[in-house]
Amino acid sequence: MSIKSIEHVFKVHFSSTAILSEKVDVVISGGGMVGASMACALAQNEMYRNKKVVLLEAASDKGEFILPEAYSNRTCSLSPATVKLFESLGAWDEIKNMRYQPVKRMQVWESCSDALITFNNEDLCDNLAYIVENDVILGAIMKRLKATGDNVDIKFNTKATNYRFPGEKDENDHKESLVSLELSNGQTLQTNLLIGADGFQSSIRKKANFHTIHTDYKQCAVVATLQLAETFDNTVAWQRFLKTGPIALLPLGPNLSSMVWSTTAENARNLKQIPEDSFVDAVNDALWHDRDKNPVVSSVFNSFTDALNNILPGSLLSKQLPPTVIGVQEKSRASFPLSLTHSSNYVKSRVALIGDAAHRIHPLAGQGVNLGFGDVACLNELLTNCAKHGGDPGSLTHLLDYETERQRQIIPVMVTIDGLQCLYSTTLTPIVLLRSLGLHTVHSLDIIKNQIIKQASS
Ligand SMILES: Cc1cc2nc3c(=O)[nH]c(=O)nc-3n(C[C@H](O)[C@H](O)[C@H](O)COP(=O)(O)OP(=O)(O)OC[C@H]3O[C@@H](n4cnc5c(N)ncnc54)[C@H](O)[C@@H]3O)c2cc1C
């Protein structure tokens, strides 16, 4: 043990027994994609080279990630802004050495009308997004963290079992000024800043009494890895809104796509149990069937598109047909309950929440973890500035800047996604008509579409 760390070790009373307590600068609780990225950012941060950071992860160390032949059923659509963060951490090169699939075009359409919207990157130099397996993302980040993180102590199989936040008294009536953590391995830590990256059921958010808004969508997302009929340049992401929720096919490779089908809990259970051929039929039916079409909406919609084409020539629909699915990878079907969870605040004195611990949204826009990576970039920048000025990383002044900046970005995204989820859960004719006309109008106006792409990329 170095002299510096011996200096940091002193005796305190936590619970009723005297145990060793270590003083560290930052503790990150949760080593998922977001928490591990935060640790990786601090590992490579010049201003944190001589500071002590601890990463707590409840799960065990999976060791070096070896890319399996079979694709995982858990994938994320990563935005260009996330790729930029990963490039700065050296993790994007690791991902490129494993596997990823660019998205060059997106088509979103619905089952109740002919309305659709497409996005493509013809006029943009970047791809719209990149589909990467969650295991590949975490494997890449962990590799970079272990290679560069001399200042980061990763404790696997470890979580905090007891917390004392600033202002709370210990059993000796001593008021806490830092955050004290009692760990499952018996150790105690005192830290200037505790970063909660422990997922949507965050125990830090609960223990620190953050006020939280929660909406159960009463939907589950069924995921699976699908085999497509043709081998081709598979770079289109497809999403069709059905009466019961959206189904999305995200490209993985020449004849493979990753499916995320948000549907009722009952249908999700059924989709997981039915034989493979019935499942494949159900997926093709969801992508192709016409039985929800509303004749009133169709007639008004056709007149509207003709009229709009007179004003904006070339605005007629350029619908592409989705791929045909011919198989599902064995044991790749799984489901996840969906909810919106939002912490009204992301910070308190000496505590900051990042990733799903602060905000969990519907996966229909593929933005959830991208927002979490945005938190990492923002918090890292503010902590750097704070360290440059000799400030205390847990001081509320800096942390409030983080909260303001992130909520300015996240709340509009969250409200839009929640609104879309509501808008597409109804089959009421006037609403279907309005949303169809609105979608087609947006589809016809490149200026608005480019704005949407810009927003989703940042
Ligand atoms: C079906 C589906 C599809 C999705 N698709 C996309 C997509 O395309 N694009 C996108 O951006 N997002 C997507 N998301 C969202 C994305 O998966 C989440 O936003 C992301 O996983 C959140 O990462 P996180 O690191 O914040 O939390 P988590 O992934 O939940 O990680 C939390 C970590 O903390 C650990 N932990 C928990 N409690 C403790 C504790 N007390 N102490 C120590 N460690 C603890 C856990 O073991 C875990 O490793 C999707 C979500 C779903 C359900």
UniProtKB/TrEMBL annotation:
Cofactor requirements of the protein: FAD
Pfam family, one: FAD_binding_3
Compartments (UniProt record): Mitochondrion inner membrane
InterPro entries linked: FAD-bd (IPR002938), FAD/NAD-bd_sf (IPR036188), Ubi_Hdrlase_CS (IPR018168), UbiH/COQ6 (IPR010971), UbiH/COQ6_monooxygenase (IPR051205), UbQ_mOase_COQ6 (IPR000689)
Pathway(s) of this molecule: Cofactor biosynthesis; ubiquinone biosynthesis
Keyword Oxidoreductase: yes
Entry keywords, A to Z: FAD, Flavoprotein, Membrane, Mitochondrion, Mitochondrion inner membrane, Monooxygenase, Oxidoreductase, Transit peptide, Ubiquinone biosynthesis
Keyword Flavoprotein among record annotations: yes
PANTHER family in the cross-refs: UBIQUINONE BIOSYNTHESIS MONOOXYGENASE COQ6, MITOCHONDRIAL
Name of this chain's protein: Ubiquinone biosynthesis monooxygenase COQ6, mitochondrial
